[in-house]
Specification:
By secondary structure, the chain is an alpha+beta fold. The protein has three helices and eight strands. Helices cover 27% and strands 23% of the residues. The strands form three sheets. It has a four-stranded antiparallel β-sheet with strand order 3-6-7-8, with no helix packed on it.
């Protein structure tokens, strides 16, 4: 029970009273504010988790963190560097990102190098770029060779598609 002021005579009355005992004016009950529906709360929670996951991926990518499990990196080639070839199956030991076009990949990489998280994040929100699963096999469709890396177009190893996504394969210096 709370003490409120009457809307007519401004005298103190009980919030549970039906009318003011001083002037007889009806007591206006404040509108009850209800909780949001369960479906809205669940949708908000799921969206929040997705946003946190995306920021976690971006943070991990921009910070360049590496996990050392004591095993040699599967991407490390033997003493003599063996260049990649079309139709070769490759596996990335750690997750990385790829983009639908080479230009988009280069743009996203530039945003990452400059630590422009908002612009990098936008590339993923528009579905131009996405994360590749670690330890999944990919088939190389095309290769654009550079001195210390190859820009490769890949598809899942079992796919028969002729258009893939672009990412880099780094060679040790």
């Amino acid at each position: 029970m709370a003490l409120i002021n009457c809307s007519e005579c401004s005298k103190g009355i009980s919030s549970e009273a039906g009318s003011c005992p001083h002037c007889g004016a009806p007591v206006k009950k404040p509108a009850a504010t209800g909780a949001k529906p369960l479906s809205t709360r669940i949708a908000t929670g799921i969206f929040g988790l997705m946003v946190l996951g995306l920021f976690g991926f971006i943070w991990n990518f921009l910070s360049g963190s590496k996990q050392d499990d004591g095993k040699p990196d599967a991407q490390t080639p033997p003493t003599q560097v063996q260049r990649l070839k079309p139709e070769q199956i490759v596996r990335f030991p750690k997750s990385r990102f790829a983009c639908l076009t080479q230009a988009e990949y280069e743009e996203a990489t530039l945003h990452a190098v400059r630590k422009e998280a908002t612009k990098f994040n936008a590339m993923f929100e528009k579905f131009h770029c996405f994360e590749l699963a670690a330890n999944m096999d990919f088939k190389i469709l095309r290769i654009d060779s550079h001195a210390d890396y190859d820009m490769i177009e890949i598809v899942p190893a079992t796919s028969s598609k002729t258009d893939g996504a672009f990412t880099e394969w780094d060679y040790p210096k």
